[in-house]
Amino acid sequence: MFTIDPALGWKLSPGKVVRHRTRYFDMRYSINSMGFRDSLRKTANPLDKERVLLLGDSQIFGWGVPAGDRISNLIEAQHPSLEMWNMAVPGYGLDQEIISYDRNGGSLGATGLILFVSTNIISRTRSDFIFNKPKPKFTLDSAGGLVLASPKANVSAFTDVVYRLLSPFYLPYFVDTQLKRIRDGRRPQREGREATTPVGPEGIRLTEALLLRAKSLADGRNHSLLVLAELPPPSMKTLKEFADRNGIAIVPTPWTSAPPPLVFGTYDGHWNARGDAVVAGQLALAMYSRK
Length: 291
What we know:
single chain, alpha/beta
């Protein structure tokens, strides 16, 4: 489903249809011609439509959730005058969300932007290599400005070749890595479930700088900006205070970390369809109460 991208690290392969079967679900993902798990879209925006771009990671992508039951589809179905384009890519950090918006968002006739921020997303933002793939990484200079290091070209090219050659063996590779974690005394990875430990000061500072960059881009395009956030209370409080000072709207999810009734099972912390419905209601209420 993925292909290596020299600027973003990886992206979804346009036109791909793949089956994702786990102990919790059996799902088929269809990627449109623009490279997103979304409807077929026309870039020309009808005059009677709002168009909001929603970016995030696997939570927003709808990991294990039918397309029609995702946050973006639910809100769009309830509001006929709204197009909500789901441009999420599994594994993305906030840096990749913003680079994707910078690269793609200016030509799509959008009126608004929604970014998803979580503990996992902030953690990924501080890395230049994750999920066995290189990715872009922003750092802060001595003046607090952002400095971008793009993925290393030779590493990206090598990873692309490996992906193409070994993709049929992904399942054995996954089993091998899980067994290695057990042998090493580490618990299997629970991608999706958010940590309850507050984000450290460095992660918060980088997140704030990135959100200011996103706001500058959105303001330049006359797009509204809203941030959907799933963070522990101390980090949420810090980020909301920053956002209030800088005119950025924050919408917290209705929980600190995803409770058991809203996840698929022991080893999967992604929201299920019920979880997406709760978040969609919260997000739609915030969007339309601001008008």
